[in-house]
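Hey, resending since the last one bounced:
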Amino acid sequence: MSGVARRIGQTDRVRVVETGPDGDRAREDAVAAEEPLEIRVAWPGAVPRRAWVTMRTPGHDFELATGWAFHEGLVAAGDVAEVGYCTDVDLAPEQEFNVVTLRSGRPVDLGHRHVTLASGSSACGVCGKDSVAAALETVRGTPWAGPEPREDVVRRLPLLLSEEQSVFARTGGVHAAGLFAADGDRRVVREDVGRHNAVDKVSGACVLAGRSPADAYLVVSGRAGFELVQKAVAAGVGSLVAVGAPSSLAVHLAREAGLALFGFTREDRTVRYA
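The C-alpha cells again:
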C-alpha cells in the first residue's frame, strides 16, 4: 500500500471484454468512481463527530457535506464557518480525501439519528426519517414564492439537464440534479452515483456561494423518491421535476408541503402529481 494520499477522480479506467455480433473485443472502459465519504460535524467547544457516511462519486465533496447537513436541518445557510478535508494524523493515506469536516459557527444538535455510526449507500438518503411530519420540520429557509410552474418550461428541463451531464456521457453510471430558474436558466448542475448526493451537492453549492437554494425548479435525472422530495422541501424549491416516476410517499409529502411534483418528464410529456 502506498503511503501517498490518493485523490480520486470522478471516473476510473477498467479493462473489459465486449461481446457483440463480431465476437469478443478487449478494451478499456470508463466507469463512474464510487468511494465512501465520512462527514464529520464540529461546532464551538465540540470536537468533530461522525454524522454520516455515504458512498459517492468524488468531486464537490465540500458541497456534498454542506448540502447534506443543510437538508438534514443540522445547519442553516449562514451557520457554516468552515468545511475541509480532515487532517487527523491517524488517517490512512487512502482516507485523506474521504473524510470531510464541517464546522458550524453555532451549536449543532445531532440528535439520536446522528450520534450512532450512521452510514448510507449511494441509493438511499432518508437518514432515519420515518414520517412526513419529521421531514417537514427540516425546511431551512424561506420557500420559493414565484409564479406557478409553466409546463412548457418543465418539459424542456430534462434536456437542459442532460446537456451538463459530462460524467454520464463518459460512463452512463451517474445521476444528475440541477437547479433552474423560472425561465429555465441553469443555476447549478451536479452528478453523482447517488441521486440524493447529487441533490446535496446542488444545495451545498448554493449555500457555500452565499445564495439561497430556494429557486423555481429542482430537476433530477431519475425517479422522485421520498428522500429527494424531502431535500427539495428542505431547500424550499418551488417544483421538483423528475425524468422517472415518484413513489406514493413522495407524492404525499409533496402535497403536504405544497411542492409541485412532476414525473415522466420529457419534451412532449409530463405528469403533475402535486
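The mean pLDDT is 89.

Sorry for the duplicate.
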